[in-house]
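Obj.: predict assembly geometry.
Materials: sequence records (below).
Method: joint structure prediction, all chains together.
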Amino acid sequence: MDYLPQILFAIALIAGIGYFARNVKKLMRNIKLGRDVDVSDNKSQRWKNMTMIALGQSKMVKRPIAGLLHVIVYVGFVVINIEVLEIIIDGLTGKHRIFSSAGAIYGFLIGTFEILAVLVFVSVIVFWLRRNVIKLKRFLSSEMKGWPKNDGNMILYFEMVLMTLFLVMNATDLKFQAMDSGNIISQHITPWFSNFSEHSIHLIERTAWWLHILGILIFLNYLYFSKHLHILLAFPNTYYGKLTPKGQFENNEAVTKEVKMMMDPNVDPFAAPPEGAETAVPAKFGASDVKDLSWVNLLNAYTCTECGRCTSECPANQTGKKLSPRKIMMDTRDRLEEVGKNIDANKGEFKDDGKQLLGDYITNEELWACTSCNACVEACPVSIDPLNIIMQMRQYLVMEQSAAPMELNNMMTNIENNGAPWPYNQMDRLNWKDE
Amino acid sequence: MSELLKVPTMAEFMAAGKQPEVLFWVGCAGSFDDRAKKITKAFVKLLNKANVEFAVLGTEESCTGDPAKRSGNEFLFQMQAVTNIEVMNAYEIKKIVTTCPHCFNTIKNEYPELGGNYEVMHHTQFLKSLLAEGRLTIEGGQYKGKRITFHDPCYLGRANQVYEAPRDLIRKLDAELVEMKSCKSRGLCCGAGGAQMFKEPEKGNKDVNIERTEQALETKPQIIAAGCPFCNTMMTDGVKNKEKENDIAVMDIAELIANAQDL
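Observations (raw structure tokens):
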């Protein structure tokens, strides 16, 4: 019956990774519900952006305190996970610390992990204090009530527990302590267990070992349900991020076609539409639901980790307006999840639920408060573009619903009639010269 | 003074069989808004002083479509764009300078895809190049030693990464350039962008221009410098709201340079 732990381990591993893979597939399906856009250009610039922004955390450190703490947790997370490789091999083979034969290198590695584990633990405590005791304004917005707040804390608890288990596991591993190499932190924890029998200590070590790996598998599967998904999606998201100047808003191609047709003197306005054209659904201008947005917008939504830097930089939000760029992203994600669940429940087919992103999640008031200043886009540490979504939804409001505020309709009528947003005659455009 | 302004039109250049060095895109604010017209004239004085062969479109110019696009009326935007592009391409325009960051951004970034390819410069960039070529000299004059803070227009700064040209010009005035707590890539909007200029703000607890003006006042400036006619309006209103209009002037960089040389 010596194989029982290995069998249990294999089952846990397969179940953990299998369920995660299933959700990743669902995630990709949901993202692909978005409108197709071509982002296959400028590969070298895209790799560079990903390396700098996601891997190199270049935008995180724009806010030095949160940035530094985040870098610690990020580096800790990546490096300590090397240890998971050993745990997996040990678990499947029934060996103990298979890499320990590497001697001094092994000691150096584990020593590094232990120091990082402590640093991560401390950083996570500070993060928790920032959210729960210092109460930074950007964590208290209305969209952060309920699940988003609990989610944020839950992630921190997970990390605290995982780091503790890692250190306890090392401290109670008497063979490892006997090696006296790499136990730089755990040697100070070992004495806490001096009153226990050798058997009990071994039991604690095994328990910590099992809880540690099971915790990691649970955490992995928690990602899909959490804002913490950013640890994976930050990479593709920064890769597919906008490369053109921030002020350049994409020109709507469907509109370009219409405008070209109007400007072309050879087009016969009374010509019968070509065969089959009547049945084609006319393109919808702008976006009212998640499927009208591009798949990059939807990837953005899943990537958002609700840090709120966008919202704290937003001029509309700073002056008490309802608009919060973070809420735009969270709403898009929540609606997309709802659509995804609808598809799951209806055998792969979306059944109209009478809801949409516009109105049921995002209100007109929020959309009209935007000054298009790009502060949110600039602030995002992972290249999310809330402004792009806002503009697509404004297009829907204006071109499909004629629902612009009255003053804007006046402004647009002026542009149409006399080529300026104010009611001045175009023929007076040069009058300033003689005034 | 105004009779001294030389403002030839593209049509006149065409009739004379000549091409100007650069097209000055005046923009709607620069053409019609009383405050912005002063900026337009100040810039023209500088162009005249530097003997730049420029032309304007005059009555052939029309709104770039920026406020329409940012309001969501993509159709109106593209109609404006293709009309303007048709006019400019017919005149074989290669280079454009404008005093409005919104026009600058739209023509530079959004027109190429619709068939309008030009080299587009903001007037602060253009003035800087005139300086570098030795065609224009800047003296501090009345602004020597004055405390000046610069408000970054979103569509010049964040949107197009132009942060230094306006600041370099202020430094050339021998003025003391002081920065607000939010500046350059973190500059706070004046509240006019995205067509907000043309509507009442949504419900909130403060107007954006008041917030920005407060940030500017924290630097205890004598002058708030701007590089956009809309920012200029918003900041001027903000300063009036704080009843500081007698102590603090809101000025465009072109006006500062023109005034400094008593133009």
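Conclusions so far: The CA atoms of residues 50 and 134 of chain B lie 9 Å apart.
To do: check interface contacts against the pulldown list.
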